[in-house]
Amino acid sequence: MSETEKITINLGLVDLGQVDLLVQEGFYSNRTDFIRTAIRNQLSTHAEVVRQTVARKTLVLGLENYTRRDLEAVRDAGETLEIKVLGLASIADDVSPELALETIDSLVVLGALRASPAVKSALAGRIQSP
């Protein structure tokens, strides 16, 4: 499982030209290096806001993995989950759509959700936009 997610951005031609100039002058190894650095700088600038928001919204920060065994235990306890993750939420491939529906009431993921297409489809009505 990859620890990165591919994104696409649209950038104005003048901005893109300036990025290319900085790459050409050796400040960055390539466009991706520039973009990652810019993102990290902004995240560092806003780190306290992120920390406070994660705490306020009771988000799990990082990787949260749900296995068939985990969800069966939730079901057997007569409970359900409200999943809130900032990072990666992963539902194992052996989790059936039926088990997911029985145990997951809602799902908020700021980042990426990894699950089988069948589970994603089954949970579509329970996946909340951030």
From TrEMBL:
List, alphabetically, the Pfam families matched.
RHH_8
SUPFAM superfamilies recorded: Ribbon-helix-helix (SSF47598)
Q: Which GO terms describe its biological process?
A: regulation of DNA-templated transcription
Q: Which PANTHER family match?
A: BLL4998 PROTEIN
Annotated protein name in UniProt? CopG family transcriptional regulator
